[in-house]
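We were asked to recover a plausible sequence for a given structure. The inputs and outputs are reproduced exactly as logged, with field labels preserved.

PROBLEM: sequence recovery
POSITIONS: 481
GIVEN STRUCTURE:
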C-alpha cells in the first residue's frame, strides 16, 4: 500500500514537471458571431512544447463562463511513435472530431485552429481556455485544470433610442393670418392725392396690389380687414405733417377700395404725423459723426413739442447733420404701412396630408401635427412633417421643439440644440435637454434632468424619462464590462 502511494506521488510530480515545461502560445485570435453560431479562429504555437516519442498531449479548447462549459474540437499533439500508431488506427477529423499532428521537437510549429459551435446566450460574455491532458488521465480528470486564453464579449452594444414627448399644438379656432408691407409713395409737395404714374408710384402700387391679389387668389382664404397707417417725416410744422399723414393714408385706402370689392371686410385707416421712432432707429443704427448729439435731442423727454425738437436738430454741428437727414433719412420716413388680414378655412387630416407637400403655408401647426400622426413615429415621412412645420413657422416655440425632437431621434445634436434655443420652458423641453445630454455622453447631467421628470403630471413625459434612465443605466453597465 505504501509503495503504491509513492508511485502515485511520483507520477503526480512528473506530470507537474511536464506541465510546467509545456507553454502553448496563442496568437491571431478572432471570434465572430454568424447567425446562431460562434466561429473561433486562433493560431496555436507549439514551438516550446516537447512531446516524447511515445507520448501524446491532448489540448482541448473550451468556452467557459461560471458553471457553464463547452469543450471544442481537441488537438492531439503526438510524439513520433504515437503519431505512427494514430495513422495506422484510421481515425480522422470527420468521424472522430479531433485534430492530430506530429510534434517535431525543437522546431517551430504552429497550427491554424478553427471551429464553429452553436451559440448559447451564456457565451456572450465568456472566455476561451485550454485544457491540457499530458498524463493520459482523461477529460474528466483534467477539465478543472484550465489555462485562460482570451475573453469573448459578444454582448450587443447599447444603441440609444431616445424616448421623447412631442408637443401637441393648440387648435386654432380661427386661422388668422396677416400680410404686411410698406409703400413709399411720391406725392407732390403738400398734396395728398395719389398720382398712380408719378415717379416711383407704379412700382409701389403694384407691390400693394400683388399682396392683396395673393390672398384674393387663394381659394382657401377670405380677407377680413385691410388697414393703412400713414407716416410723415419731422420737417415742417407738426400740424401740416398731421394733415399730410392722415390725408395720404386715406387716399391710399380709397385707391385700394376703388380697385376691389372687399365685401364685408373692415377697412381702417390710421396715421402718425411724424415718424420720430423711425428717425431714432435709423440714427442709432447709422454711423453719423454727430449721432450721439442727435440722439440726445431725439430722446430728450423734456422736449415735448415736436417742432421745437426738429428745430434743435438743425443746430447740431452747424446744421450739416440735419442737411444729411433731410436728403438721406427723411424721405424713408414718409411711408404708408399696409396690412391685409385674412382667415384660412380649417382642413381635414386627409386634406392637410395633401397640402403638406403642395401648399404647407395654408396649414396650422395642429393640422401638420395630425398629418404626422398618420405615419410611423420616427419614419422619414414623420420627421419630414416636423421639418416642414419649422420652415413654415420658424419662430414658433412648438414647431422648434418638435423639430428638435426629430433631430434628437436622428442623433443630430447640434441641430437639436439650435431648435431648443427657440423654445420656451416646459416638461417636453426639459426631457429633450436630458436626452441631448445623454446623446452627448454627459450622463450625470442627463440623469439629473431625467430624474426630475419621472414624477411629471404628464404620463408621456414621466414614462419617457424612465425609459431614458433605463437606457442610461444599460449604457453604464456596458461600459463596466
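RECOVERED SEQUENCE:
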Amino acid at each position: 500500500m505504501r509503495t503504491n502511494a509513492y508511485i502515485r506521488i511520483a507520477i503526480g510530480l512528473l506530470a507537474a514537471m511536464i506541465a510546467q515545461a509545456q507553454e502553448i502560445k496563442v496568437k491571431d485570435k478572432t471570434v465572430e458571431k454568424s447567425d446562431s453560431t460562434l466561429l473561433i479562429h486562433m493560431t496555436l504555437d507549439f514551438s516550446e512544447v516537447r512531446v516524447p516519442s511515445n507520448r501524446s498531449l491532448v489540448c482541448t479548447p473550451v468556452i467557459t463562463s461560471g458553471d457553464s462549459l463547452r469543450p471544442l474540437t481537441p488537438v492531439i499533439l503526438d510524439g513520433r511513435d504515437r503519431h505512427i500508431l494514430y495513422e495506422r488506427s484510421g481515425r480522422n477529423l470527420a468521424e472522430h472530431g479531433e485534430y492530430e499532428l506530429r510534434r517535431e521537437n525543437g522546431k517551430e510549429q504552429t497550427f491554424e485552429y478553427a471551429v464553429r459551435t452553436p451559440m448559447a446566450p451564456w457565451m456572450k460574455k465568456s472566455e476561451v481556455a485550454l485544457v491540457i491532458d499530458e498524463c493520459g488521465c482523461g477529460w474528466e480528470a483534467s477539465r478543472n485544470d484550465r489555462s485562460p486564453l482570451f475573453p469573448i464579449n459578444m454582448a450587443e452594444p447599447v444603441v440609444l433610442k431616445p424616448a421623447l414627448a412631442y408637443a401637441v399644438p393648440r387648435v386654432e379656432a380661427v386661422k388668422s393670418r396677416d400680410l404686411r408691407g410698406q409703400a413709399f409713395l411720391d406725392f407732390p409737395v403738400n398734396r395728398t392725392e395719389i398720382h398712380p404714374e408719378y415717379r416711383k408710384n407704379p412700382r409701389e402700387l403694384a407691390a400693394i396690389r400683388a399682396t392683396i391679389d395673393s390672398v384674393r387668389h387663394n381659394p382657401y382664404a377670405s380677407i377680413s380687414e385691410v388697414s393703412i397707417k400713414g407716416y410723415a417725416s419731422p420737417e415742417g410744422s407738426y400740424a401740416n405733417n398731421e394733415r399730410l399723414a392722415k390725408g395720404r393714408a386715406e387716399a391710399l385706402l380709397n385707391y385700394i377700395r376703388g380697385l376691389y370689392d372687399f365685401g364685408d371686410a373692415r377697412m381702417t385707416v390710421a396715421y402718425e404725423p411724424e415718424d420720430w421712432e423711425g428717425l431714432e432707429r435709423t440714427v442709432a443704427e447709422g454711423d453719423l459723426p454727430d449721432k450721439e448729439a442727435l440722439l440726445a435731442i431725439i430722446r430728450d423727454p423734456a422736449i415735448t413739442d415736436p417742432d421745437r425738437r426738429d428745430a434743435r436738430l438743425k443746430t447740431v454741428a452747424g446744421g450739416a447733420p440735419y442737411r444729411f437727414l433731410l436728403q438721406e433719412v427723411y424721405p424713408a420716413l414718409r411711408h404708408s404701412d399696409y396690412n391685409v388680414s385674412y382667415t384660412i378655412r380649417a382642413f381635414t387630416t386627409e386634406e392637410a396630408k395633401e397640402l403638406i407637400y403642395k401648399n404647407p403655408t395654408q396649414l396650422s401647426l395642429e393640422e401638420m401635427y395630425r398629418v404626422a400622426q398618420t405615419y410611423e413615429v420616427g419614419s422619414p415621412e414623420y420627421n419630414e412633417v416636423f421639418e416642414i412645420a419649422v420652415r413654415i413657422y420658424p419662430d414658433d416655440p412648438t414647431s422648434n421643439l418638435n423639430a428638435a425632437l426629430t433631430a434628437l431621434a436622428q442623433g443630430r445634436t447640434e441641430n437639436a440644440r439650435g431648435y431648443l434655443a427657440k423654445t420656451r420652458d416646459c416638461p417636453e423641453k426639459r426631457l429633450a435637454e436630458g436626452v441631448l445630454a445623454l446623446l452627448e455622453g454627459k450622463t450625470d447631467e442627463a440623469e439629473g434632468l431625467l430624474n426630475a421628470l419621472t414624477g411629471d403630471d404628464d404620463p408621456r413625459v414621466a414614462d419617457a424619462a424612465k425609459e431614458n434612465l433605463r437606457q442610461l443605466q444599460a449604457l453604464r453597465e456596458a461600459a463596466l464590462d
